[in-house]
Amino acid sequence: MSEPPRKRMVRPPGGGAPRGKAQRLATAKSHTASSQAWLTRQLNDPFVAEAKVRGYRSRAAFKLIEIDDRLRLIRRGGRVIDLGCAPGGWLQVLAERKAGQVIGIDLLPVEPLAGATVLQGDFTDPGCEERLLALAGGPVDLVLSDMAPNTTGHRQTDHARIMALVEAAGEFAQRALKPGGAFVAKAFQGGETAPLIAELKRAFAEVRIIKPKASRPESSEVYLVATGLRAAAPHD
Predict the structure, then answer these.
(1) Which of 33, 133, 146, 208 is the most exposed place for a label (fewest CB within 10 A)?
(2) What is residue 159's three-state secondary structure?
(3) pLDDT, tens digit, for every residue of 217-234?
């Protein structure tokens, strides 16, 4: 292994609005209060600005970069499946870091990306898992999930839907990964997370909860990182 060391991002990237001089929307009156708040946040987000500079399709790329800088999950030449890959920011990071077979899937269409194979569909559909593994060339080293369902506005309902999606991704990962493989999934802090973490701890050697710097401070978003998938017990 003679790869050059990767630089860690120890502080938010530069760019965006100057410190202490938040940008305002020139056409604020034409937006609803919620959309105005979102657009203002985007204008003043240094990760949004840096993503544009680097050509990343989303600021979420920096979340995976930080996680991988800390834990070295992306193996050169490794096989990776990215669940819920739109718009492709994580696929770009995987390609940059020289993963081998990179397979993405999303309900939404994703523009083609060199170094990745992308499917449009639902990873829980019958036959989809087999197709993803066939494209990957067999069991994979890493399964990623940055998925989140559309929200209803009802907090308990939304959290239950989010956790159901993370659980489905975790079950998929346990079937798709090689022994020793790793799983990364977006989740949200809450009491319902504990049973999922307990299940992951039974299946993996170590489970961490990470909140990357690119994850907005006001958000309850965290990432579950499970490493060292245990070999399945032999059947009787």
Answers:
(1) 33
(2) helix
(3) 888 899 999 999 998 744
Q: Judge whether 7 counts as a catalytic residue.
A: no
* CATH no. for 61-229: 3.40.50.150
Written in H, E and C, the secondary structure of 42-98 is HHCCHHHHHHHHHCCCCCCHHHHHHHHHHHCCCCCCCCEEEECCCCCHHHHHHHHCC
pLDDT in the model for residue 233: 47
Q: At residue 171, what are phi and psi to the nearest 5 degrees?
A: -65, -40
13, 62 contact by CB (below 8 A):
yes
Kindly list the domain boundaries of the chain, sorted by start residue: 23-55, 61-229
**CB neighbour list of residue 130: distance below 8 Å, 6 or more residues apart:** none
> Active site residue: 7, 186, 201, 211, which one?
186
Backbone φ and ψ of 188, nearest 5°: -135, 140
